[in-house]
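Cross-posting from the chemistry board since nobody answered there.

I work mostly on the small-molecule side, so proteins are not my area. We synthesized flavin-adenine dinucleotide and want a rough idea of how it might sit in this target. Sequence and SMILES are below. Is it possible to get a predicted 3D structure of the two together?
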Amino acid sequence: MKTDADVIIAGAGPAGSLAAYELAIHGVNVLILEKSIFPRYKVCGAGLTHKILHEIPFDVSSVFDTTIHSIQFSCDFKDVFTRNSREPMMYCTMREKLDAFLLDMAKSAGARVQFGEKVKMISQTEKMVEVTTHTGLFHASLVIGADGVSSAVSRSADLRDNISLGLAWEAEVKVDPEMVKKFSKTVFLDWGTFPGGYGWVFPKDDHFSIGVGGPVSLSKYMMPYYQKFLRYLDTGYRIQDAGSGFQVLETISLKSWPIPICNKKSNFHHGKILVAGDAGGLTDPMTGEGIFYAVRSGKLAAVACFDYLQGKSYSLERYTESINQELMNELLEANRIKNLFNMVPLKIHHLVRDKDHVWRAFGKVLRGERLYSDVRKGFGKWKFLWSITCCLSKWVSDYKEKHFNNTTLK
Ligand SMILES: Cc1cc2nc3c(=O)[nH]c(=O)nc-3n(C[C@H](O)[C@H](O)[C@H](O)COP(=O)(O)OP(=O)(O)OC[C@H]3O[C@@H](n4cnc5c(N)ncnc54)[C@H](O)[C@@H]3O)c2cc1C
């Protein structure tokens, strides 16, 4: 039977578009099936850490709204301080712009896209993969599931066993334009309010994206936390150098959305099907950052598909291996650091405030110059101390999450 493409990709987010781009520039016949019509709004902070620039193989700076050089930290709304970096740490954008741009790059490399095509199910025979959408059937040699947190592909291929969910609330908030201008290089971060969660403000062209997120088990606290965070920003009683608060004028599209977290090394392929990005649960459990991991896994998926189609490998096993070795090692390390933070949030908050080398290390992780796993390496021959600390902090963190009861967030 004739196929519709060598590779069908479900979803045109960052994972899907980067996989499509990499395949198309190497002459592979790629078809993307995307359920919505672009450009489309997506609830997301759309903060890109600097390290993503090493991964995207073309210039993406035209879609950046702002470049971040400062972070204002608070711990449970207290102990406010600002840290600055000469080097850019992050870039903020809007997902409708970023995703449309990445998809356009994939299209100009030769990928085809069909919008309004929702993938419902995947099945595979020895020779090919059959993709069922709500309009009909498509066939390909290989399929990449890049269809986000509720991935129909990962469900069909039984690749969701080790994914748990976090939750985030976010809105686009219009404030006094002077404030947007004044804080266009600053991210606001409140952490330590509840275990495994934090609040953020990301400056955009003409507004702020403001959100909070954390473990699903604490979801009932999230809306009160969001409201408290907004009050804190609005009144400005602790915003450094502001004089007054943000003066919130309008809140647009306040929405919640799950964040998938893969908590174990797992299978990221099954037969001729691979999953990338959120479909594989590849987000940072500490920060919720997922765009970098979507881009990286999309590229790795493209390499695995290319090698398979060229006959250089007979299975997609190498994809699972590379995701586990490169990305999961790092994400599991991030989870250990998250637990450590949950155990002693104020202590770490003060270390970031008082110790230049801690702040520099923080910046280097965002810039991709250091890895989370370097923390373990820093223990040298005392690695067992790190292992003991990890066990203890996991226990404390789980306990704090289970018994959390903050009366000010009700
Ligand atoms: C509130 C919030 C804030 C966040 N902030 C940040 C941040 O600041 N920085 C960061 O790095 N990450 C952030 N994330 C995480 C980030 O949004 C995701 O990790 C990232 O979008 C994953 O990219 P992806 O390509 O895997 O999936 P997605 O971006 O979700 O793309 C999936 C695509 O597939 C399409 N699709 C879905 N189902 C189907 C189907 N059945 N058939 C066909 N198409 C389908 C969707 O329409 C979508 O276009 C945030 C998440 C949330 C919830």
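Reply from a structural biologist on the board:
Welcome over. Reading the output above for you: The chain has a mean pLDDT of 93. The chain is about 35% helix and 25% strand. Happy to explain the token format if needed.
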